[in-house]
Amino acid sequence: ASRSPSGGPLLTPSQSLDGAGGRRSGYITIGYRGSYTIGREAQADAKFRRVARITVCGRTALAKEVFGETLNESRDPDRPPERYTARYYLKFNFLEQAFDRLSEAGFRMAACSSTGTCAFAPEQGGPADDKIWTSYTEYVFCRD
Known about the structure:
Structural class: alpha+beta
């Protein structure tokens, strides 16, 4: 067997283990698009639409470990376990459920990012008092 400079066994990325029970380390990114409408009274009239789809980016083996049967692989079938993909999505639409599964699997949030743009303004023929905004948000989770 190959040895590392420190004398321990040399592990490939697919064999990397953490010290807490032999789980693979890595990153999983959760993303979603959202939209909301804000009227004249911005705080009182904000109307949020439900999350349409939660996307999953990461190593296939990790995504399957965390999300199991709730992972929709139809956009990237037969992906090798150690390859990365950004084409999976979840069969449920609740961010809290995704976060709970990641936490139970030993992941912690490492970063998040969000963008927002005005997609439809009154001067473009939209509702007189409303503006429709779209956003894209990503949460990066890691397990050492």
